[in-house]
Q: What sequence folds into this?
Protein backbone atom coordinates (compact mmCIF):
# COMPACT_ATOMS: atom_id res chain seq x y z
CA UNK A 1 0.00 0.00 0.00
CA UNK A 2 1.26 3.48 -0.88
CA UNK A 3 1.48 6.39 1.58
CA UNK A 4 1.15 10.17 1.47
CA UNK A 5 2.78 11.83 4.49
CA UNK A 6 1.58 15.11 5.98
CA UNK A 7 4.12 16.17 8.60
CA UNK A 8 3.94 18.76 11.37
CA UNK A 9 0.74 20.51 10.27
CA UNK A 10 0.11 23.25 12.85
CA UNK A 11 -3.47 23.98 13.89
CA UNK A 12 -4.68 26.44 16.53
CA UNK A 13 -7.70 24.81 18.17
CA UNK A 14 -9.65 24.45 21.41
CA UNK A 15 -9.24 20.99 22.92
CA UNK A 16 -8.53 20.11 26.53
CA UNK A 17 -9.95 19.38 29.95
CA UNK A 18 -9.40 22.85 31.42
CA UNK A 19 -11.73 25.78 30.75
CA UNK A 20 -8.83 27.98 29.64
CA UNK A 21 -7.87 25.47 26.96
CA UNK A 22 -11.37 25.48 25.52
CA UNK A 23 -11.74 29.25 25.78
CA UNK A 24 -8.30 30.50 24.73
CA UNK A 25 -7.14 27.62 22.53
CA UNK A 26 -3.61 26.43 21.84
CA UNK A 27 -1.35 25.00 19.15
CA UNK A 28 -1.69 21.39 18.00
CA UNK A 29 0.60 19.59 15.57
CA UNK A 30 -0.62 16.79 13.29
CA UNK A 31 1.24 14.08 11.45
CA UNK A 32 -0.98 12.09 9.10
CA UNK A 33 -0.07 9.08 6.97
CA UNK A 34 -2.68 8.56 4.23
CA UNK A 35 -2.66 5.03 2.81
CA UNK A 36 -3.91 4.55 -0.73
CA UNK A 37 -3.00 2.85 -4.02
CA UNK A 38 -1.09 4.89 -6.61
CA UNK A 39 -1.52 2.29 -9.38
CA UNK A 40 -4.33 3.98 -11.29
CA UNK A 41 -3.05 7.48 -10.52
CA UNK A 42 0.44 7.13 -12.00
CA UNK A 43 -0.60 5.44 -15.24
CA UNK A 44 -0.01 1.93 -16.55
CA UNK A 45 2.81 0.70 -18.75
CA UNK A 46 1.32 -0.14 -22.15
CA UNK A 47 4.45 -0.45 -24.29
CA UNK A 48 8.17 -0.97 -23.81
CA UNK A 49 10.87 -1.88 -26.32
CA UNK A 50 14.37 -3.13 -25.86
CA UNK A 51 15.91 0.31 -26.18
CA UNK A 52 14.61 1.90 -22.99
CA UNK A 53 11.53 3.47 -24.56
CA UNK A 54 8.25 3.12 -22.68
CA UNK A 55 4.73 4.42 -23.04
CA UNK A 56 2.21 4.83 -20.23
CA UNK A 57 -1.46 5.62 -19.93
CA UNK A 58 -2.27 9.14 -18.72
CA UNK A 59 -1.96 10.11 -15.09
CA UNK A 60 -5.26 10.25 -13.20
CA UNK A 61 -5.31 12.81 -10.43
CA UNK A 62 -8.76 11.69 -9.27
CA UNK A 63 -7.37 8.23 -8.47
CA UNK A 64 -4.98 9.64 -5.86
CA UNK A 65 -5.50 11.87 -2.81
CA UNK A 66 -5.13 15.65 -2.93
CA UNK A 67 -2.86 16.27 0.06
CA UNK A 68 -3.71 19.97 0.05
CA UNK A 69 -7.40 19.17 0.42
CA UNK A 70 -6.59 16.57 3.08
CA UNK A 71 -4.54 19.09 5.09
CA UNK A 72 -7.35 21.64 4.84
CA UNK A 73 -9.88 19.07 6.04
CA UNK A 74 -7.68 18.19 9.04
CA UNK A 75 -7.34 21.87 9.93
CA UNK A 76 -11.05 22.65 9.59
CA UNK A 77 -12.09 19.59 11.60
CA UNK A 78 -9.83 20.37 14.54
CA UNK A 79 -10.82 24.04 14.53
CA UNK A 80 -14.57 23.49 14.26
CA UNK A 81 -15.05 20.94 17.07
CA UNK A 82 -13.95 20.82 20.70
CA UNK A 83 -12.99 17.71 22.70
CA UNK A 84 -11.65 17.31 26.21
CA UNK A 85 -9.36 14.43 25.21
CA UNK A 86 -6.87 14.55 22.37
CA UNK A 87 -7.51 10.80 22.12
CA UNK A 88 -11.10 11.59 21.13
CA UNK A 89 -10.04 14.36 18.75
CA UNK A 90 -7.60 12.02 16.96
CA UNK A 91 -10.12 9.17 16.76
CA UNK A 92 -12.93 11.35 15.39
CA UNK A 93 -10.52 12.98 12.94
CA UNK A 94 -9.43 9.61 11.56
CA UNK A 95 -13.04 8.50 11.14
CA UNK A 96 -13.94 11.76 9.41
CA UNK A 97 -11.06 11.46 6.94
CA UNK A 98 -11.90 7.86 6.06
CA UNK A 99 -15.52 8.71 5.38
CA UNK A 100 -14.86 11.96 3.52
CA UNK A 101 -11.75 11.37 1.37
CA UNK A 102 -12.14 9.11 -1.69
CA UNK A 103 -9.44 6.46 -2.22
CA UNK A 104 -8.29 6.64 1.42
CA UNK A 105 -7.92 3.06 2.64
CA UNK A 106 -6.20 3.60 5.98
CA UNK A 107 -4.94 6.52 8.03
CA UNK A 108 -2.36 6.86 10.80
CA UNK A 109 -2.72 9.97 12.95
CA UNK A 110 -0.33 11.47 15.49
CA UNK A 111 -1.84 14.45 17.31
CA UNK A 112 0.67 16.48 19.33
CA UNK A 113 -0.10 18.94 22.11
CA UNK A 114 3.15 20.91 22.67
CA UNK A 115 1.61 23.36 25.16
CA UNK A 116 0.10 20.68 27.38
CA UNK A 117 -0.54 22.23 30.85
CA UNK A 118 1.43 19.76 32.99
CA UNK A 119 3.88 22.27 34.60
CA UNK A 120 6.86 20.11 33.73
CA UNK A 121 9.68 20.58 31.19
CA UNK A 122 8.52 18.51 28.20
CA UNK A 123 8.63 18.98 24.46
CA UNK A 124 5.17 17.66 23.65
CA UNK A 125 2.44 15.18 24.53
CA UNK A 126 0.93 13.16 21.71
CA UNK A 127 -1.39 10.30 20.85
CA UNK A 128 -1.15 7.98 17.85
CA UNK A 129 -3.75 5.71 16.28
CA UNK A 130 -4.45 3.85 13.06
CA UNK A 131 -7.88 3.38 11.51
CA UNK A 132 -8.96 1.91 8.18
CA UNK A 133 -11.54 0.21 6.04
CA UNK A 134 -12.04 -3.52 6.68
CA UNK A 135 -13.55 -6.17 4.39
CA UNK A 136 -16.12 -8.23 6.27
CA UNK A 137 -18.42 -11.09 5.27
CA UNK A 138 -21.76 -11.55 7.02
CA UNK A 139 -24.40 -14.27 7.03
CA UNK A 140 -28.08 -13.27 7.21
CA UNK A 141 -30.98 -15.61 7.98
CA UNK A 142 -34.68 -15.62 8.89
CA UNK A 143 -37.32 -18.30 9.45
CA UNK A 144 -40.17 -16.52 11.25
CA UNK A 145 -42.88 -14.32 9.76
CA UNK A 146 -42.16 -12.29 6.65
CA UNK A 147 -38.72 -13.74 6.03
CA UNK A 148 -37.96 -11.71 2.89
CA UNK A 149 -38.93 -8.51 4.68
CA UNK A 150 -36.61 -9.21 7.61
CA UNK A 151 -33.70 -9.87 5.25
CA UNK A 152 -34.44 -6.65 3.36
CA UNK A 153 -34.60 -4.79 6.69
CA UNK A 154 -31.14 -6.10 7.50
CA UNK A 155 -29.76 -4.96 4.14
CA UNK A 156 -31.31 -1.52 4.55
CA UNK A 157 -29.80 -1.23 8.04
CA UNK A 158 -26.36 -1.97 6.59
CA UNK A 159 -26.88 0.57 3.81
CA UNK A 160 -27.99 3.26 6.25
CA UNK A 161 -24.93 3.14 8.54
CA UNK A 162 -22.44 5.80 7.55
CA UNK A 163 -19.47 3.61 8.50
CA UNK A 164 -20.60 0.64 6.40
CA UNK A 165 -20.49 0.23 2.62
CA UNK A 166 -22.57 -2.69 1.36
CA UNK A 167 -20.55 -4.26 -1.42
CA UNK A 168 -22.05 -7.55 -2.66
CA UNK A 169 -25.19 -9.56 -1.91
CA UNK A 170 -25.56 -13.26 -2.66
CA UNK A 171 -28.71 -14.92 -3.98
CA UNK A 172 -31.16 -16.03 -1.28
CA UNK A 173 -31.26 -19.74 -0.45
CA UNK A 174 -34.08 -21.60 1.27
CA UNK A 175 -32.45 -24.08 3.64
CA UNK A 176 -33.41 -26.65 6.21
CA UNK A 177 -32.88 -25.80 9.91
CA UNK A 178 -29.44 -26.47 11.40
CA UNK A 179 -28.77 -27.78 14.88
CA UNK A 180 -31.53 -30.33 15.48
CA UNK A 181 -34.31 -27.99 16.64
CA UNK A 182 -37.60 -28.63 14.81
CA UNK A 183 -38.68 -25.42 13.06
CA UNK A 184 -39.51 -23.86 9.70
CA UNK A 185 -37.05 -23.55 6.83
CA UNK A 186 -34.73 -20.56 6.69
CA UNK A 187 -34.03 -17.99 4.05
CA UNK A 188 -30.28 -17.31 4.03
CA UNK A 189 -27.87 -15.10 2.16
CA UNK A 190 -24.39 -13.66 2.60
CA UNK A 191 -23.09 -10.15 2.03
CA UNK A 192 -19.73 -8.45 1.85
CA UNK A 193 -19.26 -5.06 3.43
CA UNK A 194 -16.46 -2.56 3.93
CA UNK A 195 -16.52 -0.88 7.31
CA UNK A 196 -14.47 1.33 9.60
CA UNK A 197 -16.10 -0.30 12.63
CA UNK A 198 -13.99 -2.52 14.85
CA UNK A 199 -15.29 -6.09 15.37
CA UNK A 200 -16.96 -5.39 18.72
CA UNK A 201 -18.57 -2.21 17.36
CA UNK A 202 -19.90 -4.07 14.35
CA UNK A 203 -21.26 -6.87 16.55
CA UNK A 204 -23.07 -4.32 18.73
CA UNK A 205 -24.68 -2.78 15.65
CA UNK A 206 -25.77 -6.17 14.27
CA UNK A 207 -27.37 -7.03 17.62
CA UNK A 208 -29.15 -3.67 17.58
CA UNK A 209 -30.53 -4.40 14.10
CA UNK A 210 -31.64 -7.88 15.20
CA UNK A 211 -33.38 -6.45 18.25
CA UNK A 212 -35.12 -3.86 16.07
CA UNK A 213 -36.50 -6.75 14.03
CA UNK A 214 -38.03 -8.58 17.02
CA UNK A 215 -35.15 -11.03 17.51
CA UNK A 216 -35.24 -12.97 20.78
CA UNK A 217 -32.67 -15.43 22.12
CA UNK A 218 -34.61 -18.16 23.90
CA UNK A 219 -33.56 -21.44 22.26
CA UNK A 220 -30.03 -22.19 21.05
CA UNK A 221 -30.19 -22.75 17.27
CA UNK A 222 -33.92 -22.01 17.57
CA UNK A 223 -36.19 -20.00 15.26
CA UNK A 224 -35.48 -16.31 14.79
CA UNK A 225 -36.87 -13.39 12.86
CA UNK A 226 -33.38 -12.25 11.93
CA UNK A 227 -29.90 -13.63 12.45
CA UNK A 228 -26.79 -11.65 11.47
CA UNK A 229 -23.39 -13.31 11.96
CA UNK A 230 -19.86 -12.10 11.31
CA UNK A 231 -18.10 -14.80 9.27
CA UNK A 232 -14.76 -13.25 8.28
CA UNK A 233 -13.20 -9.88 9.16
CA UNK A 234 -10.08 -9.24 7.08
CA UNK A 235 -7.66 -11.95 8.21
CA UNK A 236 -8.43 -11.36 11.89
CA UNK A 237 -8.39 -14.30 14.30
CA UNK A 238 -9.96 -13.47 17.66
CA UNK A 239 -11.91 -15.21 20.39
CA UNK A 240 -13.65 -13.30 23.16
CA UNK A 241 -16.56 -14.13 25.42
CA UNK A 242 -18.93 -12.53 22.92
CA UNK A 243 -17.31 -12.98 19.53
CA UNK A 244 -15.31 -15.56 17.60
CA UNK A 245 -13.73 -14.63 14.26
CA UNK A 246 -13.70 -16.49 11.91
CA UNK A 247 -17.16 -17.81 12.79
CA UNK A 248 -16.49 -20.96 14.76
CA UNK A 249 -18.82 -23.23 12.75
CA UNK A 250 -19.00 -21.65 9.31
CA UNK A 251 -17.00 -24.46 7.67
CA UNK A 252 -19.73 -26.96 8.68
CA UNK A 253 -22.67 -24.92 7.37
CA UNK A 254 -23.81 -25.42 3.81
CA UNK A 255 -26.29 -22.54 4.20
CA UNK A 256 -23.28 -20.28 4.84
CA UNK A 257 -20.72 -21.62 2.38
CA UNK A 258 -23.01 -21.82 -0.67
CA UNK A 259 -24.10 -18.16 -0.68
CA UNK A 260 -20.65 -17.02 0.46
CA UNK A 261 -19.09 -18.93 -2.43
CA UNK A 262 -21.37 -16.97 -4.80
CA UNK A 263 -19.84 -13.64 -3.81
CA UNK A 264 -16.36 -14.51 -2.46
CA UNK A 265 -15.11 -17.96 -3.53
CA UNK A 266 -11.51 -16.97 -2.87
CA UNK A 267 -12.03 -15.35 0.51
CA UNK A 268 -9.51 -17.02 2.83
CA UNK A 269 -10.21 -18.70 6.15
CA UNK A 270 -7.14 -17.86 8.26
CA UNK A 271 -7.62 -20.78 10.66
CA UNK A 272 -8.59 -23.53 8.22
CA UNK A 273 -6.02 -22.22 5.70
CA UNK A 274 -8.47 -22.69 2.84
CA UNK A 275 -10.61 -20.60 0.54
CA UNK A 276 -14.39 -20.56 0.77
CA UNK A 277 -14.53 -22.56 -2.45
CA UNK A 278 -12.25 -25.21 -0.96
CA UNK A 279 -14.26 -25.34 2.27
CA UNK A 280 -17.47 -25.81 0.28
CA UNK A 281 -15.96 -28.61 -1.81
CA UNK A 282 -14.71 -30.35 1.33
CA UNK A 283 -18.11 -30.09 3.02
CA UNK A 284 -19.94 -31.45 -0.05
CA UNK A 285 -17.55 -34.41 -0.21
CA UNK A 286 -18.32 -35.61 3.32
A:
Amino acid sequence: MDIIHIKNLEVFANHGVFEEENRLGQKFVVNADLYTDFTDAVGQLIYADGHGHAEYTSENLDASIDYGVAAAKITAFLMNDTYELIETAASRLAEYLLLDIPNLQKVHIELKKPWAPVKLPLETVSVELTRGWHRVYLSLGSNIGERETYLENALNALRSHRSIKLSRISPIYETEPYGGVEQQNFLNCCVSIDTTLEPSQLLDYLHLVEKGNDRTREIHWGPRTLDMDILLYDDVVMHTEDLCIPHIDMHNRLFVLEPLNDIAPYAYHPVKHATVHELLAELLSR
The helical segments are 19-24, 39-42, 67-80, 86-100, 147-160, 199-212, 254-263, 276-284. DSSP finds eight helices and 15 strands in the chain. The mean pLDDT is 93. Residues 86-100 form the longest helix (15 residues).
